[in-house]
Amino acid sequence: MKVIRALATAIALAAVVPALPAQAQKLDMTKLSCKDMLEGGKDGIIIVWSWLYGYYSADDAEPVLDFKVLTDKGTKLAEACKADPSKDVISAAKPIYD
After folding, report:
1. b/e map of 22-47 (b: 16 or more CB within 10 Å)?
2. Dihedral sign (CA 31, 89, 86, 19)
3. Scanning 50, 53, 68, 82, which has the fewest C-beta atoms within 10 Å of its C-beta?
4. The pLDDT value given to residue 7
């Protein structure tokens, strides 16, 4: 599971970091706003959804990616973010992914 989390994190960072200033070397996901995520385009949104799916998975969860669950939760997150674009992604995701 930790390998999946590391991979998801690397993918998320690879997609989001190029949009940040050149000096940015870390991305604090608690500071990523819903607005920023939604403006990241389809690929960026899917990467954030995937990162959250791994982040909120139990440490002993099977290494299986359920695309239906990923999409269902991601869609709920997108709806929550559209309702409050100023909210940070982690706060918006917590009630959905927990």
Report:
1. eeeeebebeebbbebbbebeeebbbb
2. positive
3. 68
4. 52
Question: The whole model's pTM is what?
Answer: 0.71
CA separation for the pair 65, 69 (Å, rounded) = 8
Distance CA 24, CA 40 (A): 17
Is the pLDDT assigned to residue 59 strictly greater than 90? no
Q: With H, G, I as helix, E, B as strand and everything else as coil, classify residue 25.
A: coil
Indicate the number of domains in the chain: 1
Q: Sort 51 into a burial class: Cβ within 10 Å, 0-12 / 13-18 / 19+.
A: buried
First to last CA, the chain: 17
Quick check: helix, strand or coil at residue 66? coil
Question: Using 50, 70 and 90 to split pLDDT, how confident is the model at 82?
Answer: very high
Q: 33: which strand partners?
A: 88
Lowest-confidence region among 2-11, 24-33, 40-49, 81-90: 2-11
